[in-house]
Design brief:
InterPro entries: DUF4268, NucS_C, tRNA_endonuc-like_dom_sf
Shape: globular
CATH topology of the largest domain: Trna Endonuclease, Chain: A, domain 1
Oligomer: single chain
Structural class: alpha+beta
Protein name: DUF4268 domain-containing protein
Order of helices and strands: EEEHEEEHHHEHEEHHEEEHHEEHH
Helix content: 25-40%
Strand content: 15-25%
Organism: Thalassobacter stenotrophicus DSM 16310
Number of domains: 2
CATH architecture of the largest domain: 3-Layer(aba) Sandwich
Number of strands: 14
Distance between the termini: 33 Å
Pfam families: DUF4268, NucS_C
Length: 372
Amino acid sequence: MYQIKRNLNNIVQLQECSFSELGFREREHLQEWIAKNPDVLGEDLLILQKEFNGFSQTNERLDLLALDKEGSLVIIENKLDDTGRDVVWQSLKYVSYCSTLSTSQIVKIFQDYLDGSSSGVSAKTTILDFLETEDDESLVLNRKDQRIILVANNFRKEVTSTVLWLRDHDIQVQCFRAKPFSLDDDIFLQVEQIIPVPEISEFIVDIREKDKEDKGKSAVVAQTEADLLDFWKMVKARLKERQINYFDNVKAQPRWYLGFNKGRGRFGMVIGRNALRVELYFNNDADKQLFDAMDQFSSELNSAFNNELEWQRLDEKKASRIKFELSKAELEKFGNWDEPESIKSRVEWFSIEIERFYETMFPYWEKAQRSK
């Protein structure tokens, strides 16, 4: 790794080091860095607990327990300069322990973690915000197989060989190499995924699907993930027919929303508990700078939408949003979800309103970003 020296029009090589020679430790440092910045692992993850040891009849504890955007559990194991020989076996044990965790248990585990920091934040609310849904009644976590992420400076061949075999058998394991570098008094950290190679994983289609029954809960909007996937595919097809290209590069997913990012905001279509909505969503707006930057244009925007926009500053949350929603009463006129004409009506509503919302909102969003 090199540092670019603009003033000299040159590059300077950084010295690769080990964590131990720099005085860093696994739990106090590497684990804390990942807990505070889980996005270094290449995706949005919600850290649920550190040093989790809530397994009956064993004193073992996993390093970090996280949740991904699909509501699946992610077991993160950190090893400082060397993985050792048993890290895979250790992780598989933790996965087996976590496979039985229910939604309520996961919420409690996370609430204990939040309470430990005296944040006063609701675990369920935070999880719903993270998953970008308001449907707490049908919240089901840990439905799919759990995932493993291994982080270390050096991976032994017996570890990588085992990981590759597990991946060939549909066990979701990823390996990230964490390398510290130094230059004079400055220290740098590089975290890169080595298994699977990112460039290859982008082209791998996961054809394995496991459907577990959601006991005691009913899906309010769609009964299966396949229904959601089919619905968004129909929406994308209708948008294409209308020559609206916002979502051309957005893959339909079995989620309650479909969206794309513009700067630090996301334009999206969302299936709520009792309504459909289009929105401009700010996922990371704790100081409300993004929301306030748009609020200066509220008069013009409200006028364009006949004062039907909802401005949700959400002061108690990290997120904020501006939305236009189809009311529950209007939605009921569409009929039930299992009726083809009803589905068609919803598809048409999204295709019309996301265009109107985006074309009206985006010019102001551009101005707001420049004003910050």
